[in-house]
Amino acid sequence: FAPFLVLCFYRCLLSNCLWWALICGFIIDLLASQTRLGTYAFNYCLTTFLLYRYKYHFFEDRLSTLPAMTFGFACLSTLIQAGIFYLIGKP
């Protein structure tokens, strides 16, 4: 869902992007049986909130924008997910 959410950065307001991130996170939560419900939703919302302001540093019409922002989204999401797993005691 990372490319979809990055495209939402450029098409929607922050509040709408957060709603989409919540919906995408809950879909992943429903499909992932090894984590608690809400971890991915919280992760996607927090990642979206932190990266949304960087859309002004990358222009929408550039070919490199989507891969660069998706890479940033994936890296930040992985770090946040590792922190969440550490906090809830999941190895």
List keywords for this structure.
91 residues, mainly alpha, 0% strand, globular
Question: Could you please describe the fold and organization of this structure?
Answer:
- This protein has 91 residues and is mainly alpha-helical.
- The chain contains four helices and no strands.
- α1 crosses α4.
- It is globular.
- The mean pLDDT is 88.
Tell me what portion of residues adopts beta-strand conformation.
Answer: under 5%
Could you tell me the mean pLDDT? 88
User: Mind describing the biggest β-sheet?
Assistant: none
Radius of gyration: 13 Å
Number of helices: 4
Shape: globular
Helix-residue proportion: over 70%
Number of strands: 0
The protein's oligomeric status is single chain
Q: What is the N-to-C order of secondary-structure elements (H for helix, E for strand)?
A: HHHH
Write the layout of secondary structure elements.
Blueprint lengths: L1 H10 L2 H18 L7 H13 L13 H24 L3
Helix pairs in contact: 1-4, 2-3, 3-4
Gist?
By secondary structure, the chain is an all-alpha fold.
